[in-house]
Amino acid sequence: MTALTAPRPGDAAANSPEPYLVVEDLTVKFPTENGLVNAVTGLSYSLELGKTLGIVGESGSGKSVSSMAVLGLHDEKRSRIQGSIRVGGTEIIGLSQKRLNQMRGNDVAMIFQDALAALHPFYRVGDQLVEAFALHHPSASKRDARKKAIEALDRVGIPQPDSRVDDFPHQFSGGMRQRVMIAMGLINSPNLLIADEPTTALDVTVQAQILDLLQDLQREFNSAIIMITHDLGVIAEMADDVLVMYAGRAVEYGSCKEILSHPEMPYTWGLLSSVPDVTASTDSRLIPIPGTPPSLLDPPTGCAFHPRCLHKDKVPGNLCSTELPMLTPGRHQGHLKRCHLADSDAIYVQEVLPEFDPGLAAELADTTTDDEAPR
Amino acid sequence: MRRVITAILVLILTSMIVFTIFFMGPKNPAKSLCEKQQRCTPAKLATLEHRMGLDKPLHRAYGDWAKGLLVGRTIEYSDTESYECSAPCLGISYTSNREVTDELKEKYPATLSLAVGGSLLYLTIGVIAGVFAARYRGRFIDRALVTTTLVISAIPYYLIALLAWIFLTQRNHFFADTTYKPMFDGGFHPIAWAAALLLPWLVLGLTNATSYSRYTRGQMVETLGEDYIRTAVAKGQKENVVVFRHALRAAIIPVVTIFGLDFATLLGGTVFTEQIFSIDGMGRWALQAVVGRPDIPVVTATVLVAAGFIVFSNLVVDVFYSFLDPRVRLA
C-alpha cells in the first residue's frame, strides 16, 4: 500500500518534527460469522496541531472505524488492527489499556454524533463533565471539578451554566446537548479532537453555531481536529485537508480547496454533484451516485468503486475491474487520487461540472486560475 | 394519588371475587363440617350455617366480612353465644376455630423470612452472574452460565426442591431440618432460624437466579452496546467502572421491575417450597384451606394478602422507577 510520507503542500521543511497525529498503513478487520469485514485497508494520513482534517465518505466507508482506532476504541478480541497510529509520538496500536485510558479524553477526545444517545441518560451533565475532568485530574477537589464543569459549559455558550450543570441530558435541546458533548470533549484541552458527524442530527442554524464554536475553540487551544462527515458543506467550512474514503480505503486526499475545486476521483465527483446548492440556479441538477456502497465482506475486484463508476469505460482494457489503482499524485504532488483515469481533471471540468453546475463550469472556463474557490 | 386509589379498588374487587367464588362454590363447608362430626342433624347444620354466615345472602355476608375487617364485628355462634372479633377481623377459621388474623400473624413470619432471604439471594447471584456473563460474552464463563441456567430451568422447580430435601436433609444431614423455627420464640434464636431456612433459601435462590442472570445478561449486553458506554470509554474511564457504574446503572432498571413483582409473589406465599420443606407459612396454609373443605375466611385472607402485596409492590416499583430513571420524574 502507498504509505503517505510525502509532505503535502503547505508543509514546512521536510525535516520538521512529525505531525501530532500520524496514521500509517492502518488496516482494521472485523471477523464475523459471515467472514472477515475489511473495514479499513491501508489508510495513511497525518494531521498537525491547529489544523483540521475532514474525512468524507458514505456510511460504511470506514471513516468512523478508522477514527475510533485512533482512540483504541475497538475491542481487541473482535477486531484485527494493523499498521501504525502515532499520537504525539506514542504508538496507539498495541498500547496497554492503562496507557490508553491516560490518553483518552486527555490527549485525544471524541465528540459523538447523537448527543442524546452519547450522554448517559441517568447522570446529570455536571456529573458527567466532572467525571471526564476528574479522571485526568485525580488530585482536583470535588468543588474544583464542579467549577471546571461550569466553566466548560459556559465556554460552549450554555446560558446559566451554574444551574444547568445539575440538569439531565434530556432536559437540554438538541443543539445545547451537542454543546454539552463538546464541553465534555474539551474539558481537558485535548490536542486532538475527533468530531464524528457532530452536526448531523442538528438543524442547519444550530449546525452553523456548533461549527463556529468548534473553530473558535480550535483557535483558542490550537487543537488538531478530525471532522468526520458526509456533508461537503461542513468540509468546505472547516477543513484544511480532506480525505475521501470509499470501501475502507482512501480514494482522494489533498488540501480542502484543491479537492473541492479540482476533484480527480469519480466518487468525489459523485459526492459533489449530490450536494444541493442554495445559491445555484434552478437549472443545476442533483445527480445521485447510482447503486449502493459495496459489501466490505466481499469488496469488488479492482477499484472498489468501479461497479458504480460512470467513467470506467474511459479506462482501456477493463483495468478498473481487474486492478486496484494505487493512491498516486494527480494534478499536484500533494493531491493524491486512487483512479486509473489519466486526465481526470479535464473530464471533471468538461463533462462532470457542466452537468450539475453549468454556471460554475462556465466561470471556470473563463478563468483558469486554480485558486478559484469552489462555489 | 390516582394510583393509590386504583390500588385500593383492585383490592376491594379481588376480595369480592374470591369471596363470591368460594361462597357460591360447589361444596357447602357447613355441610361437610357437620358430616364430619357425629350425628349431623338439620338443626345442627342450620346452627353451623348461621355461625359461618352462610344463611345470609351473598351481599350481606360480604358486608359483614368487610365490616369486620375495617371496624370489627360480633360473630354469633348461637342465640346465646357470640364472639367479639375486633378489627382487623378476617373471620374465624372453620378448621381451627381460631381468629384468622391471629393465625395469619403466626404464619406470616415464616413466609416473610423465606421470601426476603430467597429473593435477596437470587437477586444478588443472578445480577452478578449476568454482569460477568455479559462482560465476558462468548467466552467460557458466559457459555458455562448459559448452559447451567438452561439445565436448571429445564428441571421442574418442585423436583429440585424435593430432591434437595430428600438428599440433603433426610439421607445425608448436610442441612438442618427445614421445619420453620421462629426467630423470636420466648427468646432470640437467630441461628436456629437461619439454619432451618438455609436450604430453602438456597434452593429458592439458585433456581430463580437462573432467570435473573439471563435477564441481566441480556440487558447488560444491550446496554454495553449503547453510545454512552462508548463515551465513557472514550473519556478514559476504567473498564470496571464502565461496566458497574455506567452500564449496570441502566441495565438494572428493568431487572428491578421484575424483581419487585416476583418478590411480591413470594410474599404472598410459596406453595411448593413451604409444602416440601414443611415451613408453616402462607403458601401451605392457603393450600390446606383450599383442598378438602374450603375454609372460606382463610382462603379469602390469604388471597387478599397476596393481592395486597402485588398491588403494593407495583406502587413501590413505580415510585422506584421514577427514582432510578430521571426521565420518568418529569413525565
Give a topology summary.
The complex is a heterodimer of chains A (375) and B (331).
Chain A: E1 21-32, E2 35-47, E3 52-56, H1 63-70, E4 80-87, E5 90-91, H2 97-103, E6 108-111, H3 115-118, H4 125-136, H5 142-155, H6 161-164, H7 174-186, E7 192-196, H8 204-221, E8 224-229, H9 232-238, E9 241-246, E10 249-255, H10 256-261, H11 266-273, H12 319-322, E11 328-329, E12 336-337, H13 344-356, H14 358-366
Parallel strand pairs in A: 3-8, 3-9, 6-7, 7-8
Antiparallel strand pairs in A: 1-2, 1-4, 4-5, 9-10, 10-12, 11-12
Helix pairs in contact in A: 4-5, 4-7, 5-7, 7-8, 13-14
Chain B: H1 2-23, H2 29-36, H3 42-52, H4 58-71, E1 73-76, E2 82-85, H5 100-135, H6 140-154, H7 157-171, H8 190-224, H9 227-234, H10 239-267, H11 271-276, H12 282-290, H13 296-324, H14 326-330
Helix pairs in contact in B: 1-13, 2-3, 5-6, 5-8, 5-10, 6-8, 7-8, 8-10, 9-10, 10-13, 12-13
Structural notes for this entry:
The complex is a heterodimer of chains A (about 375) and B (about 325). With about 375 residues, chain A is α/β, with parallel strands linked by helices. Chain A is globular, with a radius of gyration of 21 Å. Chain A starts with 20 loop residues before the first strand and ends in a 9-residue tail after the last helix. Chain B has about 325 residues and is an all-alpha fold. Chain B folds into two domains: about 80 residues, no CATH class; about 230 residues, MetI-like (MetI-like fold, Orthogonal Bundle). Helices cover about 75% and strands about 0% of the residues of chain B. Chain B has 14 helices and two strands, in the order H-H-H-H-E-E-H-H-H-H-H-H-H-H-H-H. A two-stranded antiparallel sheet of chain B has the order 1-2. The mean pLDDT of chain B is about 85. Chains A and B meet through helix 2 and helix 4 of A and helix 9, helix 10 and helix 14 of B.
